[in-house]
Amino acid sequence: MITLRHINNIAALSLCVLLMPACAEDLGLDGDDAANEDSGLIEHEDQGEGVTRTQVDGTDEADHVYLDLDLDMGTETSLDDPGWDLGFRRYDVIVDGGIHGDAGVEVAVLDGEAFDSLLAVPSDVQWITDEADGDDEDMDPDTAFVDWYDYDFMTHVLTPKDRVYLVRSSEGAVFKLQFVDYYSSAGTSGFVSFDWAALN
Amino acid sequence: MWAGPAMFCVLLVPRLFAGPQQARVPEWVRPGDEVSGEASEDERVIVVSTGTRTEHDAATAPVATEVITREEIVGSGARNVADALEESGSSVQTSTGFNGTSLRLRGLDAEQVLILVDGQRVTGRIGGAIDLRRFNVENVERIEVVQGAGSVLYGADALGGVVNIVTRTPEPGVEVEGRASYASRTTVDASARVAGGGRRWGLSGSGGYHRSDGWDADPSDIGTTGDGFGSWNVGVGARFEPVAPLRLRVSGDYLRRSSSGVDVTSSGAIIDRRNLTETSNTTLRGAWRGANNQLEVVAHHNFFRDQFRQDQRGDDALDQYQPTNDHIGQIGVQLEQVAGHHLVTTGVDLQLEWLETSRVMDEQGSSTIERQRFALFAQDEWSPGSSGRYMLVPAVRVDFDSHFGTYPTGRLALLVRPLEQLMLRVGYGRGYRAPSFRDMYLAFANPGVGYRVSGNPGLRPEQAWTLDLGATWTPTEHLLFGLGVFDNRLRDLITTDVVTQADTDGLQVFGYVNIGTAYTRGVEAKTSVEFLRHFMVTGSYTWLDARDQINDLPLVGRSRHQGALAFEFHQRRWGTRLFARAAAWSPRPYTSDDGDASGQALAPAYATVDARLSQGLLRYLTLFVGAENLLDAGDAEFTLIAPRSFYAGLSVAY
């Protein structure tokens, strides 16, 4: 015969069942794949024939990482240091010119040029720099590198355009530059890679 | 696996071959009536309750209810509810994705279908869908599927239909059951249930262990297609009837499931993904059955905890850990009263839900969101005259939701039986899906590619008006024809749209808005024939027209044509049962850059074939072998079906 005591036991068992979810282990995060904290935000790789492949860790959402092309193989610098040429924050690439600086850095877009075969500055290039937002649909500044990538709305993946840029640095030197990737070898976004070399 | 003959009856009649004698069953099972246990097998009534919240013989219920019975669940070899539903009616379509296995009813999405256990809603939607694999079947008595709007009885989320998983009650006597099987991909399924009791009490306990390796439909990369998993579950139940009119029932269950897989993102990142999910249900139910009335009180608590972790290989930038705790508490009071030719049901539902997850944030910046609902409902099952050939069922309900306020729903159902062998049904009603916590409070940002998605607390519910017309004709006890037409009109569908081109951080902002309008409509046809005593062939076909009216495009992922053909040989005296089932789906549209001018392309058609043979031995034992997906259909992109597999096992039932 079932009694109230049995009912109480059943209720207690049910309560145990109710509370069991607290028993599962906490998965948490291990953080064991963190990038080497000692490494810098800019890494270079010599590609030969004067070409350098540079990868900039532009993952910081607040601040740009600044690069001075005129120093040996390009050097990380800061906004306060005169002479920086390019700044990287995620997909946003700026120059030390126009609305972003006083060093007069300029950019030319060379559609249809091959990076490897470009050995000298063409005579008829049009130099541009970072400007305030113009009469267009968006509200973003019209930077010189505003459309260096294609964006896939389905996959949310950024892919560099097959395009060569010229950069006239703060010291007047001209470099050819082509973006290679927006992702690190681990697939993390915000790591802008590009090939560049000085032109005569 | 094959769910068996009951799923034929899109329009009713789960006991296909019981024949015209079903017509002698009362239109409703009056409160206090005993409806099972004593009748012979051929005469036993299959009771359903999901369509009206009152008990009916499934064959004569005024709201069409598809049933998968316990016998069919066991016979099909289903391990969980997803398996049982997978190959049931042609309008029930299951799909597997990152959020588990969910179902689509008549072209409506999983988030527009309400999942119940013993009439109580369950929580734990991931990406809008309840993973049906988390419901193991060792303690399931039957599964009822009601298509069309069911909000008039169950409130929010029953926009496109209701699936009610009815658990087993310990009956007098002793029951001992066990089942173990081994299959391809190191798949192990073991479950057991023990129950016993007397006339006034009963106790039961059940449990199971299940595991399987994952699978990969695209070996060209390191990513996997189907998750490997391991799970175990336990459950207890008790029935107590201290005095004849009073029935008390308490039940509780707990499940822990761990699944894992490897993803490769579009950017090339390799992600080790794992979910550790726990669920528990506790239900207290009391019913007082008088001669012409019944009062039932139910208290239910459902807890869902999911720990989602993704671990990026070679970096931590994409690592995520998202624990989610989702509670739902419900109290329901329901009174059924018979008055002349009327069975009037009135009731009150109270629901409390609270969710805690880092993915949402309310206006105050809290990641704990609460919701309260209160509802009143009334339904009249009116069977005019003494012929029992007509039943009219009007019902109304008003929900009061703490987020979007008052929401009324209604439904009118009509059953006409002009001939003993002919059943006609009409149903017209309104359903709604409440905006989910994700819809209202999602806070997700992907600054790496410049966008974020924000919830919208001002969302209204999605709504649908659904019309069902159906006819079932059983000219002989060995032959059945069913034909149905449905039309679902959906408004205020919640979808994402660009809210701001650039926020203060320069990110493009997407938000949820009520702008969607769509319809799904179609025709369902089913037939079955039994011959030479032991053979049965069944066939079904669904034509579906599902369209997004805003963009004037077909709704993605829906096949216009679906069909199934099943064959069964069942020699009861030998204990031998063999069945095979084939199903086919026509191409489905999907959104693609490589598509036509409308931006859509078609995923290829596909077909599946399953087969199973079981043989009873030594009275209590059954050996079984089988194969699933014999055609090895499926791919990594459109049709996520586990590859061809084989299994064998043994079950015992005492």
From TrEMBL, chain A:
Record InterPro entries: HmuY
Keyword Signal: yes
Signal peptide: 1-24
Keywords for the protein's UniProt record, in alphabetical order: Signal
Name by which UniProt lists this protein: Lipoprotein
TrEMBL record, chain B:
Chain ranges of the TonB-dependent receptor-like beta-barrel domain: 189-630
Main location, first listed in the record: membrane
One Gene Ontology cellular component annotation held by this UniProt entry: cell outer membrane
Record keyword Electron transport present: no
Domain of life: Bacteria
CDD domains the record matches: ligand_gated_channel
Organism name: Enhygromyxa salina
UniProt-recorded name of the protein: Colicin I receptor
Topology relative to the membrane: Multi-pass membrane protein
GO molecular function: siderophore uptake transmembrane transporter activity
Keyword Zinc appears in the UniProt entry: no
Subcellular location: Cell outer membrane
Domain TonB-dependent receptor plug: 59-162
Keywords: Cell outer membrane, Membrane, Receptor, Signal, TonB box, Transmembrane, Transmembrane beta strand, Transport
SUPFAM superfamilies xrefs: Porins
A biological-process GO annotation: siderophore transmembrane transport
Matching InterPro entries: Beta-barrel_TonB, Beta-barrel_TonB_sf, Plug_dom, Plug_dom_sf, TonB-dep_rcpt-like
Assigned protein family: Belongs to the TonB-dependent receptor family.
